[in-house]
Amino acid sequence: MECTLDAQSLISISLRKIHSSRAQRGGIKLHKNLLVSYVLRNARQLYLSERYAELYRRQQHYPDGAPLLAMPACPPPAAAAPPELAALPLPADTQDREARSCGAARGGAELLEVPVCAVPPELQRAPCRDSSPGFYRAAGSAGPGGGGSAAPGLLYAAGCDFASGGAPHCSSRTTVLDLDTHVVTTVENGYLHQDCCSQCPCCCQPAPGLASPPPAPGTKRKYYPGQEEEEEGVEEGEPGGGGVAGGPPFAPCTKRARFEEYSAEHPQDSSNISNLISIFGSGFTGLVSRQQADSEQPLNGQLCSKQALASLGAWTRAIVAF
Amino acid sequence: FLGAGGGNDIQWCFSQVKGAVDDDVAEADIISTVEFNHSGELLATGDKGGRVVIFQQEQENKTQSHSRGEYNVYSTFQSHEPEFDYLKSLEIEEKINKIRWLPQKNAAQFLLSTNDKTIKLWKISERDKRPEGYNLKEEDGRYRDPTTVTTLRVPVFRPMDLMVEASPRRIFANAHTYHINSISINSDYETYLSADDLRINLWHLEITDRSFNIVDIKPANMEELTEVITAAEFHPNSCSTFVYSSSKGTIRLCDMRASALCDRHSKLFEEPEDPSNRSFFSEIISSISDVKFSHSGRYMMTRDYLSVKIWDLNMENRPVETYQVHEYLRSKLCSLYENDCIFDKFECCWNGSDRQVEFLTLIVMTGSYNNFFRMFDRNTKRDVTLEASRENNKPRTVLKPRKVCASGKRKKDEISVDSLDFNKKILHTAWHPKENIIAVATTNNLYIFQDKMN
């Protein structure tokens, strides 16, 4: 099928669609944004494969490993694309968007998200991990349309720190409200906390052995109209961690425990990256083939090309998560 | 072509058009759903402004045997209003997504109408008499001073001008987190289902404070979401069977007797994708926008962006028939993605139930762009493209078939793909259950066509 647009344009058009969907009446259309995320994935796959092919060709010509496009030496697949993608034409200037998001967060009832600003520049130098921060920076820079760590059906609230005078300083904190369970979750620097589950056993005990209980088997609850109001009071002190009756709230918890464990062992910059990868790479197995996206091993610092693709595929879903 | 004359082919003629003539379309007037009732006497439309307009067919005039009765406005009411969910900071649109009629049990008519979040049961009743002659009240309603009453009389009913009243009898709210896309009344006429992107709920028509969740495809981790529910319908005869379609182009048939939560399907209908057609937009165009059972329940029809498929419930691995609605758009998907047209949700409908005799007289109708709509006749293997336009508005003039020229030299009377008006889309059509009368909704107008009676 002929397409008059190249992959990069498709990506930016898609991001723009997701962004503008937030302003549409009636709330976010889950179906449409899901479909747009598929286009994003497809365009990204093409873009990456073209980049890989080109880099491979170059490597054939320069077998001694001469620098490619001023990138650090690394297996080509993992290091491809992202710096380019970071330069994608984006709807608005990154700084302005973040400033506006922070500013607007103070205002009315409208909930906004703040892109995860948790990618310090020094991460760019880490070999073979360039891919991730570059992507996430791009995703983050896309403004309200991207950078979140939750999925459709969740809402973000900006978490900004205005303590330092002058320009608002965005702490890398994103607060998410699950529309169904009304559980509020905060992601801070890659750490996920479930705000209302102070007694949550798995969150409070990041034992290396990952002792957190498996998710409750999915006996789903009946949805009673009006039940929401009752359960809001219950949520706060719920030892089960804020999930409402019957739902399986602990799947994310198991990953959280891993995050905390991993970052305890590693210096800050690499832990940020792997946390981000874990957040994004562990899921979305439907988008990428199940063989590739192995959610049980998200935490290797070094990712082989296939896994890089798999985990990076997740940022398309992150884009959808507004 | 159908309409080209001969044999059993239907020749469609313009009958009526309802709605503003203005080219400037008010957003609230955009028609969002069209539905005949079970007898075909009533035709309901819903619009983006939350209003329902019901048309009633005139009784057939014996002297005018060359045409069936006209449809005139019977009742208009505001079904849904815009709402704001303060907890989630979300505005809820008043647009009517679906209307479904209940079969008539007494003098009144009942229909279900739904927006994104709330379903309402409306009673439409006629009042053609009123009581007069109260002792303590004047005719205008003011109370009389009891001391002035000297005689007593019995109030009587006197005829009055017909008044049609619509009143909401049930409000089914707060059961859907996501946007409702379908409602379907069960063949038991006591229960109905409502479906949103991720869940399907079962209701009893009498009970508003409780519904049962029968399908839930929300993943434990929303990051793993790969598909949503796009449409759902009860089987016309089997009250424990229903189907739901997905954005991935699959249809699942579920039996409520198997378990309380129908997470496991009894049947999965899916056609493998043709790899040669793979594109950036494959996932979008395979998303099913509508699913409809045939009258017998033996077949069902699905609509995706480019085609209509007929499935035999006994065969899950591929449809028995695939009709291309506008294949010439396949090379334009990129532009259609840019202008958002690729997300348009076309509906489809069968010919009237009385006309369907087993497999023989199945006809399918669906809309397209440029105010074109298409019909496919399973029996004759023929298809036709017609246009809903005020230019063809002479009653009893047979509609001329239209043709789109995909590429190459355009013949006379053909329209090239690039001249198609993609703002003029026909998403909603309905077929009278007993007669060959069809209702076709353009953006803000409702066209009624009838077959040419000899």
Please characterize this protein's 3D structure.
Chain B: Belongs to the phosphatase 2A regulatory subunit B family. Chain B: It comes from Elachura formosa. Chain B: Keywords: Repeat, WD repeat. The complex is a heterodimer of chains A (322) and B (454). By secondary structure, chain A is of the alpha+beta class. Chain A is 43% helix and 8% strand. Chain A is built from 11 helices and 4 strands; from the N terminus they run H-H-H-H-H-H-E-E-E-E-H-H-H-H-H. Chain A has a 4-stranded antiparallel sheet. The radius of gyration of chain A is 20 Å and the shape is globular. The model of chain A is unreliable at 67-171 and 189-322 (pLDDT under 50). By secondary structure, chain B is mostly beta strands. Helix content of chain B is 2%, strand content 41%. Chain B is built from 2 helices and 32 strands. Mean pLDDT of chain B is 92; it is low at 1-7. Classes of the chains: A alpha+beta (322), B mainly beta (454). At the A-B interface, helix 1 and helix 2 of A face strand 7, strand 15, helix 1 and helix 2 of B.
